Amino acid sequence: MDGKKVFTRKQKFRLLALMPVYFIIVGGILQPLPEIIPGLWAIIREPDFLITDYFIIGGVGTALINAGLLTLLCISIIYSLGMEMDGHTITSCCLMFGFSLFGKNLLNIWTILFGVYLYSRYHKMPLSKYIYIGFYGTSLSPIITQIMYISHLPYGLRLFISLLVGIAIGFVLPPLSTHVHYAHKGYSLYNVGFSAGIIATVTVSLLKSFGVTTESRLIWSSGNNGLFLLVLGSFFLLMAIGSIVLGGREIASSYHAILKSTGIAGTDYLKEEGGAATSFNMAVNGLFAMLFVVCVGGDLNGPTIGGIFTIVGFSATGKHLRNIAPIMFGVLLASFTKRWSIMEPSPMLALLFSTTLAPIAGEFGILMGILAGFLHSSVALNVGIVYGGMNLYNNGFAGGIVAIFMVPVIHSVMDRRARARGEISL
User: Is the pTM of this model over 0.85?
Assistant: First the structure.
């Protein structure tokens, strides 16, 4: 990453690889090595639809190792494609790490990525143009696993259908993701999550029409808060200290510039403000999200740590403390007025993933951010019923809907006010 010190391309990728390596080491310490391989096999064999906490399925150490290995593979793929590091490199790798704690594993992501590869070949474009969409699009990996559990079909046919569906999903992701961006205009950061929700709705509807039913589930661990306050707290503090050492005095002005940005999709703090300020922003947001979860009575487990690392990842491409806090407080406020508790699993995930709407707070202010979080909590807790937990980025789909609903209304009100202040007749 760029900072006061200039790093080579290889050094930047090695620095990024420190994140998964740290958690692989922690995983090896937390769980005996003889249990790791059986744990990874259990994760691969388990249906992965929401909510499936790998801390329970394979063990805490195994889940961290699964996430670390997948993240290292993603970093290796990006590096092997000859790509330069930018904000999306960091975002995609952090998302791969986070969601590999509760849905993605060493087996179920590859058919979707292969579909994206075929799309790039069909259009004679380099894979590097679409690889990040592919990584984000592996949010639909549970569909691949679920098809393998259609018990009344022969194994060979199930395998063929799952491969075909995975490739088809990967093939349609790039054009659909490009198209839906125009609907929310960058005010929801989880753009591929929105397109993945559409794909999941269509795919699950097709499966249901053939009598294949899907249901959400709840496998949710608790009792790990003390451990992960130490593990995550140490990681984020080391990241913050390292950022300050590398960035020197310039980090304060660069971080201030990050806080002033709206964070609308297309933002790249790594290119705009350098690596030191970006990693410092990631560390601050990670600490804030972790402490927020604990302070409201939530659990630090696979899904919530996945949510925290989603915030951390997008801290390179749009999120900062000023635009995520209003959204999260909006969800918290909603918990006092609605029929659910913020400590329940789905509301807790909505609390973290609602920050997809950070650009609304960044562009339109604190009150609109609180309103966005308030609305998002209701949409996120109800919209997933249409695809039965098959889209890991459920909040990305919900956030896109909220952004499409809110932003045109806000713009219309602001436009009328702007004209009213002038001399244009209304």
Answer: yes
